[in-house]
C-alpha cells in the first residue's frame, strides 16, 4: 500500500518560496550579508564558519568562500552584472504568427517609403525607367574639351570649361 505524501511544512514552503523568488546572480546586499555572517561566526570561534554561512544563507559554499577570500585580499568585493538571458530584460510581447506578420508588414512598408524617398531625390534627368547605373556610366563617358589630354582635370573649372592659365 503506497504511503501518503507528507504535506510540506511551513519551513519547506518558505525555503521553496525564497529559492523561486531569488535571482540567480548575487547582489551587493547578499555579499554584505555573507561577509557579516562570516565575521560574526568567526568572532564566536565557530568551526566551519564558511559552511555555516553558506547553509544559513542558502548559497553555495564555494561562493561564500570566494566572497570571503576576495574581501580579505582586496578589502572590497565585486558583483557580477545580471545575466543577459534574464527574463526581465526580454520583451514582454507574445511571440505569435500574427505579431510576426505585423512586424514584417511594418518593415516592408518602411523599406518602400525609404525607396520612394530615395527616388524622389534622384536628378530630374532620371526617368522612371532610367537606372542609377546608367546615370553613373553616362557621367563616366563625359568627354573632355577638345585639345586637352586625358587625366589633366586640374585645369577644368566647375562646369568643365577650361580655366585660363595665369
TrEMBL record:
It comes from the Eukaryota. Residues 122-138 have a biased composition (Polar residues). Residues 119-166 are annotated as: Disordered. This is Uncharacterized protein. It comes from Aphanomyces astaci.
Amino acid at each position: 500500500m503506497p504511503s501518503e505524501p507528507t504535506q510540506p511544512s511551513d519551513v519547506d514552503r518558505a525555503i521553496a518560496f525564497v529559492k523561486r523568488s531569488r535571482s540567480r546572480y548575487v547582489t551587493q546586499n547578499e555579499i554584505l550579508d555573507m561577509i557579516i555572517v562570516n565575521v560574526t561566526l568567526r568572532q564566536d570561534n565557530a568551526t566551519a564558519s564558511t559552511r555555516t554561512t553558506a547553509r544559513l544563507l542558502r548559497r553555495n559554499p564555494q561562493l561564500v568562500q570566494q566572497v570571503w577570500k576576495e574581501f580579505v585580499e582586496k578589502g572590497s568585493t565585486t558583483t557580477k552584472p545580471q545575466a543577459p538571458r534574464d527574463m526581465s530584460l526580454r520583451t514582454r510581447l507574445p511571440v505569435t504568427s500574427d505579431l510576426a506578420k505585423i512586424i514584417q508588414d511594418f518593415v516592408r512598408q518602411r523599406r518602400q517609403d525609404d525607396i520612394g524617398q530615395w527616388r524622389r531625390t534622384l536628378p530630374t534627368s532620371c526617368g522612371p525607367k532610367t537606372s542609377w547605373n546608367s546615370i553613373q556610366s553616362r557621367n563616366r563617358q563625359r568627354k573632355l574639351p577638345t585639345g586637352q589630354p586625358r587625366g589633366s582635370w586640374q585645369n577644368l573649372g566647375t562646369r568643365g570649361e577650361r580655366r585660363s592659365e595665369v
